[in-house]
Design a protein that fits this description.
90% of the residues lie in helices and 0% in strands. It is an all-alpha fold.
Length: 81
């Protein structure tokens, strides 16, 4: 089992050790850490990454709410018949 997973563990270890060095090689990432413009840029990227989850969650919540409300109404209508 260890022999089978050893290459994957080694690859993960190498990526963990050298990942930050590779990220700092990007001039945009390196200069973005120095000023407030870079902070705003990074914040906007995080905001854009979160938006699909917020929209999907809102739609899911609306569908579940509507479905449960319809079930509750149909349950109360059966009692009145």
């Amino acid at each position: 089992m260890l022999k089978k997973n050893l290459p994957i563990m080694l690859l993960f270890a190498v990526m963990t050790l050298f990942g930050p060095a590779i990220a700092h090689a990007c001039p945009g990432c390196n200069s973005a850490l120095d000023n407030s413009l870079g902070f705003g840029f990074n914040s906007s990227i995080l905001f854009m990454m979160a938006m699909p989850f917020v929209v999907a969650g809102a739609i899911g919540f609306g569908l579940i709410y509507t479905y449960r409300r319809a079930q509750k109404k149909s349950g109360s209508n059966k009692d009145n018949l």
